[in-house]
Amino acid sequence: MPRTTRKEREDRRRYALEIVSNGYGWGDATKIIENTYKVSRRTAIRDVDIAFEGIVQSLEKSDIKALMGWITLGVQRNIMKAEQQNNHGAVISGYRLLFDMLIKPKEHDGKRTWRNYRGV
What we know:
Elements: H1 6-21, H2 26-37, H3 41-61, H4 64-84, H5 88-103
Helix pairs in contact: 1-2, 1-3, 2-3, 4-5
């Protein structure tokens, strides 16, 4: 006979998905589940692994534009935090990442060259 009911397990896994979706890493989410629900580390690891699998499945179904928008918002949030903390190196690398993701791929779109040679 299991020690927890199906509803308790589903609630715990739903909470694990919420924690992971809020940006907590694997280790932090495991600790939070472990302490909140008073379960073993092994059970918490299983729940967090299931939560990460759920996120990966949802990413596979999502549109690439929506995914790029989500990543862009996250990078912008990190840039703002770094600016508040006067971490100029992180700000510069955040802007560089945005440039590499959004602007650089479209840099050569409008250029017409002889036999489509781009010189890259």
